[in-house]
User: Fold this.
Amino acid sequence: EGTYRFLMQLGDSAVMSDTSQSGGAGVNLIWTSISGVHQTLGYTKTGVNTPLTVISSGPHTPHISVTADLDAKRYSVAVNGTSVGTGILFDANVASLDTVRFLTDGVNEANFSGRTFDNVLVRR
Assistant:
């Protein structure tokens, strides 16, 4: 795979749309190749991808958790209980985070086949 993106977003349903991949997304995580390093989990802010950590697509499913602060418009990310990013500014200055969205772009189906989400848990 040369170009692929898997986006994991928390956003405001009132401003998210089908015509913008990042519009309305406060938390805008991405799994892609960043700076030539494949399988990198990062975040997108105003169209720029910043790496957090490499997550292999091996046999063990990573546990990714996000803690968001709506007042400060910032969030933190942990993978398997280890912090990989703190105080990350929201991509969009949203009033709420009431929608979870997953998007793929350029992912080769043969390489992504068989991958699933075990659980998605949202807590207030």
